[in-house]
């Protein structure tokens, strides 16, 4: 953010005031050309009569900063071993990229301590309704350090507390613990300065923050940074964060959360499951990194990234999140927390984190990890154990396009995975270990928390507990989960639910030492070295070696940092690197390969580029052939050509694939089009009416009657308003809310009058929420009908059909 004026503000405590900050006269400080001025403060050796500009001339108390205006390159240095009672609040100040403002320490010894003790009170107001009316949007907050509309500020090597006198709260009624003033160790606010840039917090010890137990989006907890509605957004720009890094901080015994960045007044721009990159980058936060932090005994969530584009959350440790829930405070309206998770983020990456002992008692969630109303979330290379709610939660209908891969769960509790009404999540190459006498189930016991969709492949489910959960858990509740090439050890015992794969591998995976991953926190709260998990490496003769299924757009390395080689991965988190036997099967991250057909090859693709997108065994050679001749690399592939795969060791052993070039279609605009259906659910604003397939809104869907319909009624027809050429139908399935109505077998018919129909295409679609196409020879028509010859249903005996959007197109 660009600021004309820079100022420093140390707020005095506000009582019964509606102003966020008090007015303080500012005095310009002496400047050191080019590098700024250092201000020294020592509670041990300082004197407020000194100049404050050298160690020998240090001031004694923080309030001397009231008369300082900070600028680029200035620093505030607190002497190690000092203890200060007070707070530091900055507003409308900024350094530069070359010369940031810094607050840190000097000298040898313990970190200097700032005890806020409920002072440093300011007023927070989002200026608009929250996304959930139950959340508080305004109120007084006490913060030891407040960064309000600042830029290029770096804070490091401090100890911070903000305690309350709990006698005042507990002497009459324990409910008052939820009525405390919100408190923070470090608070950040972006509001009237546009983009708030370059805020770095490093090596802070923040503890004993006695905040409110339930105010989720107030600045309340160890570190919390949020975004308020500007007074004049047209003048100052959209408030948001850019380049925030919180690293190597130890956050302990805080209420509510440990580290949270950053709820925003722009929350209503993030509606829908699929989040557009341009929307998230414009209204959300960019270059957010949370790494190397240790959060212990957070009252609720440990670490949360919110409304951010491609945030990176790595190398963090959550130890016993949710301790306030364990106390069972009455009247606590939202008793949920997980350890480390996103909210309304796009393409967030969570990697190399550890989470353990998350409280399960009194906690509606309690998992280590949670894909929560975000798009494109990836969890990889993480370790969880002894979390009360289990390893993983995929939370509700806007937890879209999530991936959980190469993670280790050891002795997590309650259940392994919670599929809470989510669209398809990809869960592959993980290890789930259950030992001791645990009753950990595969799925959550609550029906609503096992209903989501999942693709589970190449995982090892390993259960040697002496008290296995032998209830009728079932592997596929909702009938919307698919299982491929997993290994199930200990799950084929008598009384256990039947396995979801007919030819499932049930043999011992031959781990080096299963159950041996560390169960205590590492020294200094740091993550463990990968060598601590070598008990989960597999032997060279393991049945998991080269037994997985190919995963498109897979990771590049395994849990231990070994490069993924070949085309068929090992099952589990360890890639042995053992050379796979020759295979003439090919795979692609770009094209659709069905048996011996390669589809969706764009027109104009050269043979060279085509082969770059084909993955084959190292022992096989791939050639693009036209008849008996190999085509030149710069030749565009056509449907007259084939892919020939040859065994290098035996050229007589070959396999041929047909190449299907995608025709180029243009979509018709929906203006003037109408839709009718054989059945629909009436009187619902988001689900039912056939017109919803033409409204450009992914959150509304056409749905047949909820009571079910006859198969012959499971159709929808589009009237284009006039007769014109048509050769393509695009079907966009529902993205959330279950799988009812997903069309898996279809018939497309066309008509000029809406009465006489001609069949144009039939086929099948996979059971997922990805966009589907039906192509057919171009024909002049006014009406196009899509009939669901087969479709998914979560209710036995009921027929449903549904669609979020439908488009028609013509060949260019």
Automatic annotation (TrEMBL):
SUPFAM superfamilies for this protein: Galactose-binding domain-like, Pectin lyase-like
Highest taxon in the source lineage: Bacteria
Name of the top EC class for this enzyme: hydrolase
Position of the signal peptide: 1-22
EC assignment: 3.2.1.169
GO molecular function annotations of the record: [protein]-3-O-(N-acetyl-D-glucosaminyl)-L-serine/L-threonine O-N-acetyl-alpha-D-glucosaminase activity
Keywords from the named record: Glycosidase, Hydrolase, Signal
Keyword Amino-acid biosynthesis: no
Coiled coil: none
Residue ranges constituting the F5/8 type C domain according to the UniProt record: 654-786
Pfam families in the record: F5_F8_type_C
Protein's name in the database: O-GlcNAcase NagJ
High-level lineage: Bacteria, Bacillati, Bacillota, Clostridia, Lachnospirales
